[in-house]
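SAMPLE LOG
Freezer: B-3
Tube label: C17
Construct: single chain, 195 aa
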Amino acid sequence: MDTIGPRTLHSNGGLSRRVPDRLPLPLRLTRFVGLSLAFFVLPCAFAKKREVVQHAPLPGQMMAAKTVFIQNESGLPNVADKAYTDLKSWGRYVIVDSREKADLILDFTVSHSQKESEDSQFVSLYNSQTGAYTYGTAPGGASSITWSFTHMKVIDPKTQEVIWEDQRAWLRKHPATDELIKSLKSRVEEQDKAQ
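STRUCTURE (predicted):
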């Protein structure tokens, strides 16, 4: 069998097409694109559509407000500091130094909840005076895990009525105060766009 160009000459004198060792570049690219579509695009087409959550409208006082007072009842200065920094960078509200000057009061508190568990020996105890956690193992196999939450209430200073509130758990990568201000910002801006 001798090879002549793209054809192969067989000993019986017949010619046949030789199968190339590698596909030409355009065919390789076509195959790559086709496989990419099959693995990445098609699953998305058959995925369930996520239900879009529609938010109830925020009270008019929140939308019309120009000034806010940060009221920190958490006992932790960093809660007020984070709220101040996030609100300042947002720039929607002017932060004032007294309740009397404010259109809205943002009241921050912190709560802790302990959950008992028999399965693990890990213990997390919160010291409310120092704001620190102690981690360790508990004798006898019982353990307690502490969850901490930051709460934000939006208060109308004229009526002292809570017109909106939210809470977030303390997580390392997503600080609760940051998440509360992000949520407020998202809701306000969403309503601004709708109007």
